[in-house]
Amino acid sequence: MSSIIEASAALRKRKHLKRGINFTIMVVGQSGSGRSTFINTLCGQQVVDTSTSVLRPNDNSTAIDLQLRHEMVELEDDDGVKIQLNIIDTPGFGDSLDNSSNFDIIKDYICHQYDEILLEESRVRRNPRFKDGRIHCCLYFIQPSGHGLKEIDVEFMKQMGPLVNIIPVICKADSLTVEELKFNKKLIMDDINYYALPIYNFPFEEDDISDEDYQTNTYLRSLLPFSVIGSNDVYELDNKTIIRGRKYPWGMLDVEDPNISDFVILRNTLLISHLNDLKEYTHEILYERYRTETLSGGNSNGNHRNPSTSDNKLHNDDASVTNVEDIKTLGNNTSKSVGIEGESATRKTSNGKNETYLAREEQIKLEEERLKAFEERVQQELKLKRKELLQREQELREIEERLENESSVKQDH
Ligand SMILES: Nc1nc2c(ncn2[C@@H]2O[C@H](COP(=O)(O)OP(=O)(O)OP(=O)(O)O)[C@@H](O)[C@H]2O)c(=O)[nH]1
Ligand SMILES: [Mg+2]
């Protein structure tokens, strides 16, 4: 019997692995920051067409609407483990004078995914085809300016950090010298600390972490913000080695060269070493807080995430990185890309008030059902009491009759 159970558990696991691990990344950054090129570099294939990305305003104004563009790519590692990677690109972000609607659209989208889970959790019958659309990581692209963060960067991280794991990234790192990159990283981290921006800083519990993980997380923290270089082109070197590179008048660089950017470390962190951590943090901390606040009626989406572990002392910056750097890449060689471009684009709602609407409606329904059951119980009890009362009345009447009879017998005598 137990062997049957073990076998079916193994089968389930295999099926699960066959179906793939679902992982969702949102890439946010101002236009031209290299989001699309990065997505193609991350996936090792042309997922986003970078030649037709110019957005125009919808009317006579100069304001450009933010779009949310979905891409889905299946990546597979050497062991046949599949990752179903959902990527949400955000063309139009930060392109207008007033970008507040951009923030609303992104916040609405994130909260809508949480509401869908809330609804699903409260259903008596689960939908077997339900798809978890929560965003597990938001890569926020910062263009290096030598001035730290801009107001829009601070505002974005402040507003979205409590809802989603934000990992800040310096894009186009090839435009910086070694010293400039170091300087820009420092300025950005100074601003993040100064404004107490709730980014994902590889949190851990000091007493509940292995030495190796401690060193890895501490090292990854020390790299923040990650620097990346992207490219849409691959080149063949020496008639055999193929690299994804950038060609300059003075030579060529390999975007995967760990000496010039953190791209490979970031890719391995996202797709291998911290994929589960990011998913768990999303479910156990971010969603859980959203759920509690929503069900207690107090969610204004302005919640403040204060990562309890963010103050863990940092040390050992030179810690070994084997865990991250040594892992070989997923996906370069693999599989099909399914583009659902522009699928669920602009979704505007006023100041984020109706995103909890569905959850509230479901909650009211549950409350009504509970009240109905309570009412039925009370009715039953009432019926019983009435019956008892009738019985007592009957008994009383019988006693009275008996007494009457007895007294009339006495009188007769
Ligand atoms: N030097 C350098 N240029 C880059 C890098 N990544 C992208 N670019 C270039 O920057 C330009 C914009 O890149 P995209 O990937 O289209 O940027 P995007 O953020 O998707 O832009 P929009 O979709 O138009 O908002 C292109 O000319 C890219 O070739 C990089 O790492 N370094
Ligand atoms: Mg683009």
Automatic annotation (TrEMBL):
Q: Where is the composition biased (Polar residues)?
A: 294-311
Natural source organism = Saccharomycodes ludwigii
Its taxonomic path starts at: Eukaryota, Fungi, Dikarya, Ascomycota, Saccharomycotina
UniProt keywords (A-Z) are:
Cell cycle, Cell division, Coiled coil, GTP-binding, Nucleotide-binding
Q: Where is the signal peptide?
A: none
Return the SUPFAM superfamilies for the record. Answer: P-loop containing nucleoside triphosphate hydrolases
Claim: Cell cycle is one of the keywords in the record: yes
Region feature Disordered, mapped onto this chain: 294-356
Annotated GO biological process: cell division
- Cellular localisation: Bud neck
Q: Which family does it belong to?
A: Belongs to the TRAFAC class TrmE-Era-EngA-EngB-Septin-like GTPase superfamily. Septin GTPase family.
The UniProt entry, under Pfam families, shows: Septin
Stored Gene3D superfamilies: P-loop containing nucleotide triphosphate hydrolases
Ranges where the Septin-type G domain occurs: 19-297
Q: What is this protein called?
A: Probable Cell division control protein 11
Where does it mainly reside? other
| PROSITE patterns, alphabetized | G_SEPTIN
